[in-house]
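Deliverable D4.2, example record:
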Amino acid sequence: MIHSMTGYGKSILQLPTKKVTIEIKSLNSKTLDLNARMPSYYKEKELKVRKGLASSLVRGKIDFSIFVEITADETSTKVNKGVVNEYMDQLRNIVQSGTSDDLELLHMAIKMPDALKTEREELDENEWKQIEAGIDSAVKEIVQYRIDEAKSLEEDFKQRIANIKQGLVEVEKLDTERIEYVKARLKKALSELQAEVDENRFEQELIYYLEKLDINEEKVRLANHLDYFLEQLATPDSNGKKLGFIVQEIGREVNTTGSKANYAPVQKVVIQMKDELEKIKEQILNIL
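Output generated by the structure prediction step:
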């Protein structure tokens, strides 16, 4: 079963003093590119979170974030009264009497450096266990999203492989016609030269020439690669890189068939096969 690298997972927790929102977004990437954002008091858990995400999501450009919204009446940010009073005393000494009241001075003082202080919140292990459960829930959601996203891709791959197989059937039909065409073209060229030809020698040269244009091996290998692609598509593990390698081999055989055929009707079919293959290549980049 293939997995897409595009996905989204979200989990929301309502804790006693805060609302915690966990989000995971994923796009395609050749490697694991993980960006994690979380409040500073959770930072000591970041390495563990990264390892868990890498194990579950394997590959892709991953954006992980934990947003915290305080819902309790108390706040960790306090007014530093001593500092604010000192600022106001200094401001009173600067302004002339009667030109400013204490409220205006307070507005100015509260904007000064260190006027507010934030008490560092310590990590609560019991709270973190609930957040870990939320992360697991978000991971399950994004994994399922990736599976659902890949289903349409899988059907598209099967249809395009079937189209390439149909093209191969058409090439088979045209191949006999192609051989006769090559023979006729050579005989016509010789007749136009008005030269006497040793029939035995001509047959030997014709066989040699046709062997160079023979595409039977390419047709067999192409058929095998197409079947192998479908086999790997049906395996339990998603392996986009392996499918990508198989697609490269399919492309190699299709290109060789077109170049060796030297026959316009076959080359037209090859162009159609290439078009299907390019569409597979575009989509394979998004497979895990």
